[in-house]
Amino acid sequence: MTSTKTTQLRRIRFSLWILVAAAVLALGGAYFVRMIGVREPPPVTVGEAAIRSEFSLIDHNGNRVTEADFLGHWQLVFFGFTHCPDVCPTTLAYLANVLDRLGGEVERVAPIFITVDPSRDTPQVMAAYVQAFHPKLVGLTGSESEVAAAAQSFRVYYERMEEATAPDGYLMAHAGHIYLMRPEGRFEDVFREGEQSAEEMAADVLARMNGKQ
Amino acid sequence: MRKLIATVVVALAVASPALAEESVRIFDAWARASVLASRPGAAYVTVESATEDQLLGVATPVAGQVMIHAVEKDGDISRMKHIETLELPAGERITLAPGGMHLMLMGLQDKLSEGTTFPMTLSFENAGEITVEVSVLGIAAVGPREAAE
């Protein structure tokens, strides 16, 4: 009887040690990941059900808008900022090129540019900016927390980087994807400028809009 | 003696730009038209140096400051990184292009308008200063070659 009890105790002790070891490994691993600066990758994988078009922001005409204002339209959503010299104009020009290749179907699409730098990107700034790219492009801004909430619903990562030599002493780092959202606001796919030509992306978007994929 | 020194100085001054052009070649200098004067613009060049050299800095009368930017991709996140100098290995062609390395033009006097040009001076450690004329292409341009095709 005693020996059985001892065996049981041993087993319990062994199991506990395994738990401790697992905890140490997990914590150590997490700490190591933080130390070397690896960030959790944003979940932008295809088919990600958690990505949703949900926001309450101010459009470039100064009106409060939510996802409900775009329901029924296929949304092409890109997050960026107007002080961005390269990636944002490149991507928005690419998006404009895609829109031009949708023909009449462009009326079923709502292209949306959401700033991650709302303190500098006021509705007035957004108006001048988006109109330079495409007449259909809608620019959205808001308070810091409203923008953060919108980015969260799209699972978009962005951060402020202090850079003494940049205008106002900072730059924004952000994911450079264009999200294609279904008319009811669900995630359909994600595109990246440079990964396919504007013609290819337009053909892909049209195929999805017409249920061929 | 003084005359000789003066002659040598003049000869060097005349000779150095010619030497510079031989060792470093800059082509396809272009910039994207900008939307607002208050926003930074971006310019791109292709540089090739016959001998190892370094791009130390860039200046243009149209902007207050020009910064060399590299783009670091960390998974899906793009981070612009200010780099002080750009290494030019001998014989290697370095192309600055949209979505990658670029020259950020800050403090623009005016917005960059399509169809115009502006001078830009690149300073190299060995080759000295070279000034090129930058063509401002449309807002949707991806490069001078694509535009020509």
Mean pLDDT of chain B: 84
Count the domains of chain A. 2
| Oligomeric composition of the shown chains | heterodimer
Per DSSP E runs of 2 or more residues, the count of β-strands of chain A stands at: 9
Query: Cα distance, first to last residue of chain A?
Result: 67 Å
Average pLDDT of chain A: 83
Order of helices and strands of chain A: HEEEHEHEHEEEEH
Question: How much of the sequence of chain A is in beta strands?
Answer: 15-25%
Percent helix of chain B: 10-25%
Compressed to H and E, one letter per element, the order of chain B equals HEEEEEEEEEEH
CATH architecture of the largest domain in chain A: 3-Layer(aba) Sandwich
Question: What is the number of beta strands of chain B?
Answer: 10
Largest sheet report of chain A: 7 strands, mixed
- Please state the overall shape of chain B, judged from the principal axes of the Cα atoms: globular
Number of helices, counting only DSSP H or I runs of 4 residues or more of chain A: 5
Biggest protein-protein interface?
A-B, 34 and 31 residues
Structural class of chain A: alpha+beta
Number of domains of chain B: 1
Features:
heterodimer, A: alpha+beta, Glutaredoxin, seven-stranded mixed sheet, two-stranded antiparallel ribbon, globular, B: about 150 residues, Immunoglobulin-like, ten-stranded mixed sheet, 10 strands
What does this structure look like?
The complex is a heterodimer of chains A (213) and B (149). Chain A has 213 residues and is α+β, with helices and mostly antiparallel strands. In chain A, 38% of the residues lie in helices and 22% in strands. In chain A, strand 1 (56-59) and strand 2 (64-66) form a beta hairpin. In chain A, helix 2 crosses helix 5. Chain A is globular. The termini of chain A are far apart. In chain A, 38% of the residues are buried. Chain B has 149 residues and is α+β, with helices and mostly antiparallel strands. Chain B has one domain (2-141): Immunoglobulin-like, CATH 2.60.40.1890. Chain B has helices at residues 2-23, 144-148, and strands at residues 24-32, 41-49, 53-59, 63-74, 77-83, 86-88, 93-95, 102-108, 117-124, 128-137. In chain B, strands 1, 2, 3, 4, 5, 6, 7, 8, 9 and 10 form a 10-stranded mixed sheet that branches. In chain B, strand 4 and strand 5 form a beta hairpin. The longest helix of chain B is centred in the first third of the chain and has 22 residues, at 2-23. The A-B interface holds A 39, 41-42, 44, 82-83, 85-87, 89-90, 93-94, 96-97, 125, 128-129, 132-133, 157, 161, 163, 165-167, 171, 173-177, 193-194 and B 32, 34-36, 39-42, 65, 67, 69, 71, 74-80, 82, 98-99, 102, 104-107, 139-142.
